[in-house]
Structures are given as C-alpha cells and as structure tokens.
C-alpha cells in the first residue's frame, strides 16, 4: 500500500485538509504549496482512493477564529455575529470554533492553533493583537498551508486574504468632530483625553489601536479646531488585569470643572463611568468607544454623551462568511477589505443603533 494523505501531511508538517485540497483540487491552496504536495505525493507513490474522493466534499469543513478575552463585552458582541454565521453555514456542513486566548499567553495560543490543525481546520481568522507573538502564530498558519484573514485589527504586511474591521484613526476623528461641534457655543473649550501607557507591552509589535485613535483625534483638532485646548493624560494598564485602583477616578476628579469634555480612548468603560458617577460630573461632554450594556444605560441617564461604536457583531459575522467564501472559491483569492464604519451613538438613537446590527444580519 502506498503512502496516505495523513502520512503526507505529517511528513510535510502541514494539515491533512491542506493535502486533501491539493490532491483533490477542492478548495484553496497556494500554487507553491500545491506543487510541493503533488511532487512529494508522486515521489512517494501516492495513489488516490476512489471512495475517499467521492466522499471528500461530504465531510465537515472547519473554521477557527482567535482573539483575546478582554474586554469581555466586546468579544461577546463579536461572538454574537460568529454564532449567527455559524448557524447559517451549519446546513452546508461547516463547523465554526471561536477561541478566546488568555492575555499575554502565546504558548496557549499556539497550542489551540495546533489542536485545530490536527483536527482538520481549513481556514483561520485572527486579530493582530500586541499582547501575543502574532508573527509566530502567522508562521504556523502559513506553514500548515491554511488561508487566513484578519479581523478587528489588521496585519496588512502579512499574506492575509482580507481584513474585516474598522479604521481606528477615523474613530478618533469622529470623536473629535462630535466634541468640537458640541462645544461650539461654549465660552471655554478644553478637553481631557484619557489614554493608557501599555507598560506591560513595551516589547510588543503590531498596531496600537489606542494610539491610532489618539492620532486621529489630535489631527482633526489641530487642523480644524485650533481654539480647543486638549489635555492628554495617561494611566497604566494594571486595570487590564482587573486590579482595582483610582487612576481614572483621580484624573476625572482633578479635571472636574476645568474641562468641558472628557474622552476615554482605551476600553476601560466601567471604570470611567463609575468615576463620572462618583465625582458627580455634570454638564460635561463625555465620550468613549464601544457600546456595552453600561454605556447604553448611561446614554439614557445622560451621564454619557456619545459612544463611538465599531459594530463588533457585524465584524464577527462577516469574518466567518469571508472564510467560507475563500474555501468555496476553490482557488487562491484575495477578497476586498470589508471596512466597518463607526456609528455615533447618542441618547436619541441608542436603541436604533443597538438593534441595527441584528437587523442587518437577518436581511
């Protein structure tokens, strides 16, 4: 008996499904890798099993997505979109796994990825997050011959097939435009911007989305609203590990009455809103990113003026559908980037925006 497809995959260090696709012309495999597989199979005397060829497309096709765990409310929204797409594809024999990897644990990330490769995953989606060695993750994906996409945070220098997500600089510009226009009639025009230092990630590579937001915010302020004074104040990332301290509270307390607007850039919404409640900030424009249940509530109470929302539910949905499209194309394909526009969520439109993503998924 000649060599089997599983033996070819093991010997070449790639996934079984990649070998299967190459030998049966069933799904995407890069030309270079396909030729390598075909050459090796011929040298080793591989003979296809007719029954397996007939059954190949009747097997379940597996997709896998990877992200961090925090902030939980954001990835919960991503998961809603993932599950809607997974349910729609279930009838077509697709299985979707979404993994949330503990922060700063690249080994756990690689172990989960290896498990998916061994179980026959055919396409992967990942977030280019600074808290992992994403270069190592991408190398393993490419070594296994798997097509992949990025979502939420892009890796444009990689071989990803597409990106599904937002322009973070645009999110900062939208926040600046809202604050500046709201303060037009104010006698004093000063803004407190709260940013984090990411001290635990000083060696990290890849995009810093919080810096992108800040750059977009400051660019628009400098270009179009020079009369507004911006105070950028930093706190460290210990809150990310759920340690309780008073950094945000102290900054809000220090600038209460000194500024007419406060803008939170990183994802510490709960701490920021608790600080606003504790200090008793009134008649101050308050803006943050991402729409969670607490933000929705405080839009209603008007403690919060606006939320810059990037529609995570749609990101999750379109990411899964992009992976499915790549596999069904049966050839190498680079899809157009799917850019998710930011929504400006106010008290008046909060219910409409909150239900908009679900409505779009069902349409």
TrEMBL record:
InterPro entries linked: HTH_LacI, Lambda_DNA-bd_dom_sf, Peripla_BP_I, SBP_2_dom
CDD domains hit by this protein: HTH_LacI
Domain HTH lacI-type per the UniProt entry, residue ranges: 3-57
SMART domains per UniProt: HTH_LACI
DNA-binding recorded as keyword: yes
UniProt KW keywords: DNA-binding, Transcription, Transcription regulation
Official protein name in the record: Substrate-binding domain-containing protein
Species of origin: Sphaerochaeta associata
């Amino acid at each position: 008996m000649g060599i089997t497809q599983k033996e070819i995959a093991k010997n070449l260090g790639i996934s079984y499904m990649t070998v299967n696709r190459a030998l049966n012309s069933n799904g995407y495999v890069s030309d270079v890798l396909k030729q390598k597989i075909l050459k090796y199979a011929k040298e080793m005397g591989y003979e296809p099993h007719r029954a397996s060829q007939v059954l190949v497309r009747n097997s379940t096709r597996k997709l896998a997505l990877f992200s961090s765990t925090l902030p939980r409310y954001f990835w919960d929204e991503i998961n809603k979109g993932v599950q809607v797409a997974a349910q729609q594809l279930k009838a077509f024999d697709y299985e979707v796994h979404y993994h949330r990897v503990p922060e700063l644990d690249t080994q756990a990330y690689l172990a989960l990825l290896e498990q998916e490769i061994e179980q026959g995953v055919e396409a992967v989606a990942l977030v280019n997050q600074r808290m992992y060695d994403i270069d190592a993750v991408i190398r393993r994906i490419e070594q296994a011959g798997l097509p992949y996409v990025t979502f939420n945070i892009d890796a444009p220098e990689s071989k990803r097939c597409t990106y599904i997500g937002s322009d973070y600089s645009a999110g900062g510009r939208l926040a600046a435009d809202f604050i500046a226009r709201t303060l037009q009639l104010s006698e004093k025009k000063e803004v407190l911007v709260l940013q984090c230092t990411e001290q635990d990630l000083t060696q990290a590579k890849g995009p810093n989305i919080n810096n992108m937001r800040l750059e977009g915010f400051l660019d628009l302020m400098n270009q179009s609203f020079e009369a507004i004074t911006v105070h950028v104040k930093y706190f460290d990332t210990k809150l990310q590990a759920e340690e309780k301290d008073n950094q945000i509270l102290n900054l809000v307390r220090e600038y209460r009455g000194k500024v007419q607007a406060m803008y939170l850039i990183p994802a510490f919404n709960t701490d920021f809103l608790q600080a606003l409640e504790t200090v008793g900030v009134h008649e101050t424009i308050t803006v943050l990113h991402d729409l969670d249940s607490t933000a929705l509530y405080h839009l209603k109470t008007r403690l919060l003026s606006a939320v810059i929302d990037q529609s995570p539910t749609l990101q999750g949905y379109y990411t899964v559908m992009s992976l499915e499209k790549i596999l069904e194309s049966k050839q190498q394909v680079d899809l157009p980037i799917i850019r998710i526009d930011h929504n400006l969520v106010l008290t008046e439109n909060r219910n409409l925006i909150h239900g908009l993503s679900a409505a779009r998924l069902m349409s």
